Amino acid sequence: MMRDMIAYCGLNCETCDAYLATINNDQALREKTAKLWAELNNAPILPEHINCQGCRVDGVKTVYCENLCKIRQCALKRGVTTCGDCPEIDACQTVGIVIANNPAVLENLKG
Q1: Beta carbons within 8 Å of 109's beta carbon, 6+ residues apart
Q2: Distance between CA 84 and CA 18 in Å, rounded?
Q3: What is the Cβ-side half-sphere exposure of residue 107, based on CA atoms within 13 angstroms?
């Protein structure tokens, strides 16, 4: 697993459907992901919004990842490689939600 593909929050971009749809130019997966994410987030997410090459690498990102993700904004502001490098990770409410929902991310961050 490439460390570059671990997002600031610890999620693995290589397993994300937006990333997979982008690198494989998979329109069916884009449509399925847009529908799911629109329902989950109660937001108008369309297939053309499902383009992302990874949180921490150069290239296209979803609108959410680029502009709305509070974790990414914080990590960029702090200049950390991932939240795993932040001294406040254990007390952080922002990334704490992700860790609580998906304990594997902590392994990715501590890697």
Answers
A1: 6, 9, 10, 82, 83, 84, 89
A2: 23
A3: 5
Q: What is the pLDDT of residues 75-107, one digit of tens each?
A: 999 999 999 999 999 999 999 999 999 989 999
Q: What is the 3-state secondary structure (H, E, C) of the chain?
A: CCHHHECCCCCEHHHCHHHHHHHCCCHHHHHHHHHHHHHHHCCCCCHHHCCCCCCCCCCCCCHHHHHHCHHHHHHHHHCCCCHHHCCCHHHCHHHHHHHHHCCHHHHHHHC
In the chain, the number of structural domains is 1
Q: Provide the token pair at 53.
A: 């090459």
Tokens 């997966």 belong to residue: 29
The residue segments making up the domain with residue 11 are 3-110
